[in-house]
Automatic annotation (TrEMBL):
GO terms for cellular component: exocyst; growth cone membrane; synapse. Keywords: Coiled coil, Exocytosis, Protein transport, Transport. This is Exocyst complex component Sec8. Belongs to the SEC8 family. It comes from Eubucco bourcierii.
């Protein structure tokens, strides 16, 4: 019994020292290999068997004592194992679903990109169609603006239409005739503006002076004033030069009145465009600038300056002669010859 106890204690100490179960086997093999006598080996074998039997009896007693806890632990372990297995299967299925979703999303992304590109193309085509539709109405609108002498709107419309026809719509073959027509009108538009500018510079302004003189003559004839016809007062006449020279009243550091006026001039389609000659001439100059025809305008003004001034002298002479003749007729009717 003492030997058996010693063997059991030795094996227990060996097991406590080595957590690995193979350590006990290695110890037994070493003990048996170092023994020379068969009897010693049998004795060692017996000790080992007794130790195992003792362990079995202790294990059975512990199982009996802790049967309930052991059963609960085994069931809990089985439940945990089943949950872990189920979780692994679910995770595996989720991974497979995620991979499938990823593939489907790639396909959907390509389809969405294709639809997005098609949407942009359709939007661009619709914009081009709207622009073509508007450009087709330009000749009619241009004719209306020219007839009503709203030259700035006409110039903006014409320049924009020609830029579109020679830019984004250049490849549209159906607009070739319209392109040639509007391009020709743009090339000749500045001639109309220059004629209007000369009319206001040389004819409209002098007509106002003559009209003012006639009104004074009529007033004097109504009141039967026998004094000579007063000379034409042109000191207060608003001329283009006076309109431009107002820049001398601008404050230092600020933009000149000439630049500000030209940039801020806008055309009101509801009013008579020729009501204010200064504004109208500013609109004409602005339209010529949009047509990039300012050098041609300056050259035309220089070339026609002498001729226009001679025409002013001729018209003024005719007006003075007519006024004098009319006044003489009135005096002769009143029996007051002079």
């Amino acid at each position: 019994k003492m030997a058996m106890g010693d063997a059991a204690g030795r094996y227990r100490s060996t097991m406590s020292k080595s957590k690995d179960p193979s350590g006990l086997l290695i110890s037994v093999i070493r003990t048996l290999s170092t023994s020379d006598d068969v009897e010693d080996r049998e004795t060692e074998k017996g000790r080992l068997e007794e130790a195992y039997e003792k362990c079995d009896r202790d294990l059975d007693e512990l199982i009996v004592q802790h049967y309930t806890e052991l059963t609960t632990a085994i069931r809990t372990y089985q439940s945990i194992t089943e949950r872990i297995t189920n979780s692994r299967n679910k995770i595996k299925q989720v991974k497979e679903n995620l991979l499938s979703c990823k593939m489907l999303l790639h396909c959907k992304r390509d389809e969405l990109r294709k639809l997005w590109i098609e949407g942009i193309e359709h939007k661009h085509v619709l914009n081009l169609l709207d622009e073509i539709e508007n450009i087709k109405q330009v000749p009619q609108k241009l004719e209306q603006c020219m007839a009503s002498k709203h030259y700035l709107n006409a110039t903006d419309m014409l320049v924009s239409a020609v830029d579109s026809l020679e830019g984004p719509l250049l490849q549209v073959e159906g607009l070739s005739d319209l392109r040639l027509e509007l391009h020709s009108k743009k090339m000749n538009m500045h001639l109309v503006l220059i004629d209007e500018l000369h009319r206001h510079l040389y004819i409209k302004s002098t007509n106002r002076v003559g009209q003012r003189n006639k009104e004074k003559g009529r007033i004097s004839s109504l009141v039967k004033d026998a004094s000579p016809v007063p000379l034409m007062d042109v000191t207060n006449l608003s001329t283009p030069r006076k309109f431009l020279e107002t820049s001398q009243f601008s404050t230092p550091g600020s933009s000149s009145m000439r630049e500000t006026s030209l940039l801020e001039i806008k055309e009101d389609t509801e009013l008579d465009p020729e009501e204010n000659s200064n504004v109208f001439m500013g609109i004409l100059i602005k339209g010529l600038a949009k047509l990039k025809k300012i050098p041609e305008t300056v050259k035309a003004i220089q070339d026609r300056l002498e001729q226009e001034l001679k025409q002013i002298v001729k018209r003024s002479t005719t007006q003075v002669a007519d006024n004098g003749y009319q006044r003489g007729e009135n005096l002769s009717q009143e029996n007051q010859p002079r």
